[in-house]
Amino acid sequence: MNGTTESYIEIINLSKSFGSHKVLDNINLTVNRGEVVAIIGPSGSGKSTLLRCLNFLARSESGEIKFQNRSWSLNSEGKRYKGKKYEKTLSELRSDVGMVFQNFNVFPHKTAVQNVELGLIKVRKMTKNSAREIAIKKLEQVGLGDKINQYPDKLSGGQKQRIAIARALALEPKVMLFDEATSSLDPELVGGILEEIKRLANTGITMLVVTHEMGFAFQVAHRIVFMDSGKIVEVGTPDEIRNSQESRTRAFLSAIL
Predict the structure, then answer these.
(1) Is 58 exposed, middle or buried (0-12, 13-18, 19+ CB in 10 A)?
(2) Three-state secondary structure of 195-216
(3) Which entry of 6, 22, 94, 113 is 20 to 30 Å from 123 by CA?
(4) Is 237 within 8 Å of 35 (Cβ atoms)?
(5) Is 180 left (phi over 0), alpha (psi -120 to 50) or beta?
(6) Nearest 5 degrees, angle CA 163-CA 103-CA 196?
């Protein structure tokens, strides 16, 4: 992480429920510019929902999310945003917050380069030629320069995930969210994607990474968030979490390390 401690993302008293089940329970977290934060915890602890709330793919019932001190949850009167105008505003936000999902989410009827250039054309309003030039560069960046005209059904799971990463990077986001980016991959493909994420972490981009890959989390993250039952149990540096005295954290780590 760079030398600054500038607050970039603030999550304030965020709660989210599905029916009677509270998935996020009063979450508070601050992420600094250029920081890599790994989010760990047992399945069902709310990790993925937290990322989806950050990208407003899921809407929280209460609380607030700020990017660079601008609230994207409450208006100047402290009321919840709603309506078509807000949805348009959210599309602008999402163009600055790239997200890579565990199931790739690439378009099967489009080639690798078409998958990447689509957002540049639709969101950034680029010409097709300009978008294609950037898309090719991003695919080369993730090691797919020789696969630009291939359709996803001809590619491995790891290659599809690299398309998804290139697609997110093409928009030059200010924040990257990774939601279990390796969980749908065969074991032999996991290492390559983790190396790609690690390389991105070294570029100084702000990142939040939900992962079950503990070795990766402890090696790459500046801070680790441990979640359980919809709550943040504790936040600390890798060394602090590794030597945690919190019983739930210790039980989780001892079971998987």
Answers:
(1) middle
(2) HHHHHHHCCCCEEEEECCCHHH
(3) 6
(4) no
(5) left
(6) 45
**Residue ranges of the chain whose pLDDT lies below 50:** 2-3
Q: Which amino acid is at 43?
A: S
Question: Rounded to an integer, what distance in angstroms lies between the CA atom of residue 27 and that of residue 154?
Answer: 41
State which H helix or E strand residue 128 sits in.
helix 128-141
Give the type of residue at 89: T
**Coil vs helix vs strand at 110:** coil
Q: Quickly tell me which residue has 């943040």 as its tokens.
A: 232
Tokens of 64: 């607030």
Give strand pairing partners of 7: 32
Give bridge partners of residue 225 from the DSSP assignment.
39, 235
Taking alpha carbons only, the member of 201, 167, 155, 161 closest to residue 183 is 161
Q: pLDDT digits over 26-49, tens only? A: 999 999 999 999 999 999 999 999
- Helix, strand, coil percentages in the chain from 3-state DSSP, rounded to 5: 40, 25, 35
Which structure tokens are listed for 256? Answer: 């998987």
Structure tokens given for 193: 């994607």
- pTM here? 0.90
Q: In what order do the strands lie in the sheet with 7-18?
A: 21-32, 7-18, 62-67, 70-71
Return the sign of the alpha-carbon dihedral for residues 206, 99, 103, 251: positive
